[in-house]
Amino acid sequence: MTIPNITLRDGTTIPQLGFGIWNVPPETTANVVSNALQTGYRLIDGAYIYRNEQGLGEGIRASGIPRGEVYITTKVWNKDHGKDNTRISVKRSLKTIGVDQLDLVLIHWPVPSQDLYVETWQTLIKLRDEGLIKSIGVSNFNEDHLDRIIRETGETPVVNQIEVHPKLQQEHTRFANAKHGILTQAWTPLGKGQSFDADPITTAAKRTGKTPAQVILRWHIQLGHIVFPRSVSPERQAENINIFDFLLTDDEMTAIKSLDIGLRTGPDPSVFKLT
């Protein structure tokens, strides 16, 4: 299974479909990651706060896939904002995973209440320029957060990772991303299954012979999103990657668009401040 790569605004490339390890138990992460890589995934989306980065590194090494073929993402958590803490966070992830360079590092949340996300972004720029990171981006940033870091630093993120699924399509933020040449990454891309039984999804699934999950992932791909579903099941991992042999019609894409009701499964970035 060949997963297409997308070129980011800094000239690097990223697999459009990856594998997420949020909520994967630390004791099983190595096996789960190794199996995902052997199944064909090449992007692993992690974060230090997930507490399983050691297993991420072990899984890459156990898979037999060369490090240069695996795209690793991690994130700077809320309590690690600021010049010194950000540098400590990135170096900690490098050591925990066991690599010399990270492919992509994101600010996990803006946490506007502590007002350190610009300083954190400035530090990521320096760490990238020092060669510890290839690309830098953000996660859960609203338009005002994006505008501010770009205005104050002159540096635009390559991606903005936000919650997107059929019942929360975030068209405004996706438009803001596109305006700046920022690619949208979708977390919780299946929306915890809450639209699996919706008519536009089941109708498309019946026509294509695919599952509701495959239809939704294909919808993301056709919108140009970078997407990384998560499953500890080898069978589900194989199912989720098998989405490049069919297309949704324009009518089906329009019908899925109608499912948007603004239903968040996670926090609102404008107020979230958990440390």
From TrEMBL:
Entry binding sites for substrate: H108
Site (Lowers pKa of active site Tyr): K75
Record's keyword terms, sorted: NADP, Oxidoreductase
MF GO annotations: oxidoreductase activity, acting on the CH-OH group of donors, NAD or NADP as acceptor
Matches recorded under SUPFAM superfamilies: NAD(P)-linked oxidoreductase
Lineage: superkingdom: Bacteria
UniProt cross-references to Pfam families, sorted A to Z: Aldo_ket_red
The NADP-dependent oxidoreductase domain, residue ranges: 17-260
Reactions catalysed according to its record: hydroxyacetone + NADP(+) = methylglyoxal + NADPH + H(+)
Catalytic site: Y50 (proton donor)
Keyword tRNA processing on entry: no
PANTHER family noted in UniProt: 2,5-DIKETO-D-GLUCONIC ACID REDUCTASE, NADP-DEPENDENT OXIDOREDUCTASE DOMAIN-CONTAINING PROTEIN
Assigned protein family: Belongs to the aldo/keto reductase family.
Protein's recorded name: Oxidoreductase
Organism: Cohaesibacter celericrescens
